[in-house]
Amino acid sequence: MREPICDLPAPCHIAIIMDGNGRWAKKRNLPRTAGHAAGGEAFRRIAHHCRKLGVKYLTVYAFSTENWKRSEDEVAGIMRLLGNYLKEALSDMEKNRVRFRFFGDLSRLSPQLQKLCREAEEKSLDYDVQVNFCLNYGGRDEIVKATRKIAADVQAGRLQAEQITEQLFSDYLYSKDVPDPELIIRPSGEMRTSNFLLWQSAYSEYVFMDVLWPDFSEEHLEQAIAEYHKRNRRFGGA
């Protein structure tokens, strides 16, 4: 049996920008949809390993508000893969006992996919380990939508402006009741946040790794956790 790279406890909440599917496929002269299929398998492996390590929350960037700019065929392929995964998850939900949450504006998805998302959330409410799928999600869009809701509540007299605090603002986000991620991992060699969890990541530790997402392994996850434990988290203090 392989020895663990890090024997320290895993963070409560890990978030991952699942990047590099297209480049993985291009390197192999495969269509981009093949890269997304391989990325889906990587997600299954990593989600299972996170649960094994005791991670309570896993948040993954599945589809951004900017990803609609991609070709119709690629977008359709991603949505088809997601639908197939949710159907599979619903049939195995009692065995896996993972709670599903979706962060993002689902209204742009097909009615069938919206229904699968709702069913997955409703049927898994009582489970402990939680996976948050950021789907048609953008950090700026999330903040704008929260601001509009707060403004509407102030205008309607349900809220006073002086009542607005950081905690109250957080309660208007998709991630309400979810602790901020301690660790955010971005594979693929890119070193940017790409509009991911902009509010929630204020004090997250970022680990950037030069491996394409479909090749991301359990060992890579443990390496990222080991790097996290080397950081001195001062939260603005001395």
Walk me through this protein's architecture.
The radius of gyration is 18 Å and the shape is globular. It has one domain (about 15-140, about 180-230): Decaprenyl diphosphate synthase-like (Undecaprenyl pyrophosphate synthetase, 3-Layer(aba) Sandwich). The longest helix has 22 residues, at about 30-55. The chain has helices at about 20-25, 30-55, 70-90, 95, 110-125, 140-155, 165-170, 220-230; strands spanning about 15, 55-65, 100-105, 130-135, 185, 205-210. By secondary structure, the chain is of the alpha/beta class. The protein contains eight helices and six strands, in the order βααβααβαβααββα.
Can you summarize this structure?
The chain has 238 residues and is α/β, with parallel strands linked by helices.
Brief descriptors of the model:
6-stranded parallel sheet; single chain; alpha/beta; 8 helices; 6 strands; 238 residues
Shape field: globular
Q: Classify the fold: give the CATH topology.
A: Undecaprenyl pyrophosphate synthetase
Strands in their spatial order, largest beta sheet: 3-4-2-1-5-6
Distance between the termini: 42 Å
Helix content: 40-55%
Instruction: Give the name of the CATH superfamily.
Output: Decaprenyl diphosphate synthase-like
CATH class: Alpha Beta
Our Rg estimate from Cα atoms comes to: 18 Å
Q: Largest sheet, described in full?
A: 6 strands, parallel
CATH architecture: 3-Layer(aba) Sandwich
Could you tell me the number of beta strands? 6
Count the domains.
Answer: 1
Q: Indicate the structural class.
A: alpha/beta
